[in-house]
Design a protein that fits this description.
This protein is mostly beta strands and 190 residues long. It is flat, with a radius of gyration of 21 Å.
């Protein structure tokens, strides 16, 4: 199926030069001289690399048929990350570079896997926007510096990743982490 540059939006998967790309960002540009164009940033779904591409305004673009399917993360091995479909129990493996912030993923985590419908190939796995992780180690907060200041300290979470957290967070606390930018969001009430 083909669309024009007017239909481009973030997250859209397109076919370009016989490869699949996901639109990361786009900008319609209408210069004072010359024809309008669309400047895009595209992520290659095969190798994870990001490229910039410019389309002339009105040009036709082939979109890829992509389907989102629910999977559960099982484990990691030399082939990548292994997932199981939530309903059919089918297992697949996805390379680590196709999963953004994969080091925040813990066993049992539910993710959405994007499939190229025409070839039945898994493209990427998207984590939910927030995950809850247990703080396994961090330094103690200094007295008087724990509640109101914006000071941050490093904390290691159960997946082995390091997240910057406020001074009042202690070992054993469960925190909510934003998977899009790896930032601390809030402490989870017990």
């Amino acid at each position: 199926m083909a669309i024009t540059t007017a239909d481009i939006k973030n997250g859209l998967t397109i076919e370009l030069n016989d490869q699949l790309f996901q639109v990361v960002s786009f900008q319609h540009v209408k210069p004072g001289k010359g024809p309008a164009f669309v400047r895009t940033k595209l992520k290659n779904l095969k190798n994870g690399r990001t490229i910039e591409n410019t389309f002339s305004s009105g040009v036709r673009i082939e979109i890829a048929r992509v389907e989102r399917r629910p999977y559960q993360y099982l484990y990691q091995d030399e082939n990548g990350f292994n997932f199981m479909h939530a309903e059919t129990f089918e297992q697949i493996s996805i390379a680590a570079d196709l999963i953004e912030n994969s080091d925040l993923m813990k066993e049992g985590q539910l993710v959405e896997v994007n499939y190229h419908v025409d070839t039945e190939t898994p493209l990427t796995a998207e984590m939910p926007p927030f995950v809850e992780l247990l703080v396994t180690s961090t330094i103690a907060g200094e007295k008087g510096n724990t509640a109101s200041s914006n000071a941050l300290k490093p904390a290691t979470v159960e997946t082995g990743s390091e997240i910057m957290v406020p001074m009042f967070i202690n070992e054993g606390d469960v925190i909510r982490v934003d998977t899009r930018d790896r930032s601390y969001y809030e402490r989870v009430k017990k």
